[in-house]
Amino acid sequence: MNNLFSIAGQFALRGKVIDVTEFGKGNINRTFLVTMDFDGGRFILQRINTQVFCKPDLLMHNMLISTGHMTRRMLETQLTGGRRWEVPVVIPTGAGKEYLRASDGSFWRAIGFIDGSESFAVINDCNHAQEVGYALGLFHALLADLPPESLADTLEGFHIAPRYLRHYEEVLAKCQLASSPELDYCIRFVGQRRDLAHVLEDAKAEGRLLLRTIHGDPKTDNVMMDVSTRQAVGIVDLDTVKPGLVHYDIGDCLRSACNLMGEDTDKWESVCFDTDVASAVLNGYSSVARGFLTKNDLDYLYDSIRLIAFELGLRFFTDYMEGDVYFRVRRPNHNLARALIQFRLTESIETQRAAINSIIRDMR
Ligand code: GN1
Ligand code: MG
What percent of the chain clears pLDDT 70, i.e. is strictly above it? Predict the structure, then answer.
C-alpha cells in the first residue's frame, strides 16, 4: 500500500495523496482511484499488464494521438451538439513523462477522473442503452478522419477471430483436462461454429469492410454517465484504440449491453440477448454516426454481433484450458463460467436473427 501511495504521489502535480482504492473490474490492468487532500482532487492510476500489452509506450503514444485528435475535432465541429463530452486526459509525472516505470519494472500511468460521472456493468434502462450507443457513435465520429495508420498496433491479433480459433485448436490439442458436461458443451459449441470466425476478416480481405480507428473495448462499463443528467459524458479505457473494423466495436458494445444478466452471472443458462436494448443502442449510435456506415457495413452488422459474443466466449474458454494466463480470474473455473455465458448469449443472438436484422433494416 505504501508503494501505491508513493507511485500515486509521483503523478500528483499538487497536494497530497490521502487514499488509493482498487477501482472497477478490469480483467487485464489493475485500476485504482486516487484521492488527494483538496476538494475534487481525484484521478485514476493504472498498472498496465505488460504480459498483455508488451509495448506499453505504444499504448501511451496512441492515447495521446487519439485524445488530441478528439479534442481538436470537438472544437472544430458541431458533433457534440453542445452536450457535455469529456475526453480522457493523461496526467504526466512530476518529471513530465506520460508514464512511470517503477524500480520493479512495473508500468504505471495516470488519467483524469471524469467528475460527477459513474459507469455500470449492466444496462439500467433504455435511456442508458441509447446513451451507450451514442457514446460509441460519437467516439467513432470524432475519430472518423484520423487515418488509422497514424496509430500503432498495441495488441497484435486483437479481435482477429481466425487467430483466436487457431490458438484454441492448438490449446485443445494439448489440453489434459478431464471431461465434464460444461467442457464438452463448449468444445461442441465451438466445433459447430468454426466458419463463423472468418466472416469479418474475409470481408476485410475482400475490401468490403475498411479499417478505421476503433475503441476495441466499448463495453458498458467503459461509458461514463453523468450522475445528474443521466447522459453519457465520455468513453474511457483507450488501450485498445487502434486500426480495426467498427464492427468489432459495434458487436462488442451490443454483446455487453444486451446481456442484462451481466458477464459474471452464475445463471448462465438463462442468459439472453435483449433486442429492445439492441434497438436503443443502435438508435443512439445512429444519431451521431449513421452517416459513415456504408451499405456493406450494415450488411455485416448481424454477423458482427454474433461473432464478437462467440469470439469472447472462445477467448475465455481457451484461457480456461490454458490455465488462466490472460484474463484475471477471481475464483476457480472463472474463465469457464465466463465462456458459458458468452456462448449462451451467442445462441440467443442466433435464435433472434430475424428480429435483430429487422432492427438493422430500420437503420437503412
Ligand atoms: C478485457 O480488462 P477489460 O475489462 O478492460 C478485454 C476485452 C474483453 C473484456 C471482457 C485487452 O477488458 O477484450 O471484452 O475483458 N481486454 C483485452 O470483460 O483483452
Ligand atoms: Mg479494456
Answer: 99
> Could you give the residue ranges of the DSSP H alpha helices within 245-352?
246-257, 275-289, 295-299, 301-322, 334-351
Q: What is the pLDDT of residue 78?
A: 95
Ligand 2 center to 71 CA (angstroms):
21
Neighbours of 316 (CB within 10 A): 26
Reduced 3-state DSSP string for 169-220: HHHHHHCCCCCCHHHHHHHHHHHCCCHHHHHHHHHHHCCCCCCEEECCCCCH
CA distances (Å), origin 270, targets 259, 305, 345: 10, 19, 9
Confidence of residue 364 (pLDDT cuts 50, 70, 90): confident
Which of 22, 28, 255 for mutating ligand 1's site (highest number of atoms within 8 Å of CB)?
A: 28
Distance from the CA of 218 to the center of ligand 2, in angstroms? 8
Identify the residues whose C-beta falls under 6 Å from ligand 1: 26-28, 52, 155, 217, 219, 237, 240, 263, 312
The SS3 call for residue 242 is strand
pLDDT tens readout for residues 150-169: 999 999 999 999 999 999 99
Q: What is the structure's pLDDT at 81?
A: 94
At 49 the pLDDT is 97
Centre of ligand 2 from the C-alpha of residue 277, in Å: 22
CA distance 72 to 239: 20
The predicted model scores a pTM of 0.97
Q: Which atom of ligand 1 is nearest to the CA of 28?
A: 2
User: Average pLDDT, stretch 117-142?
Assistant: 98
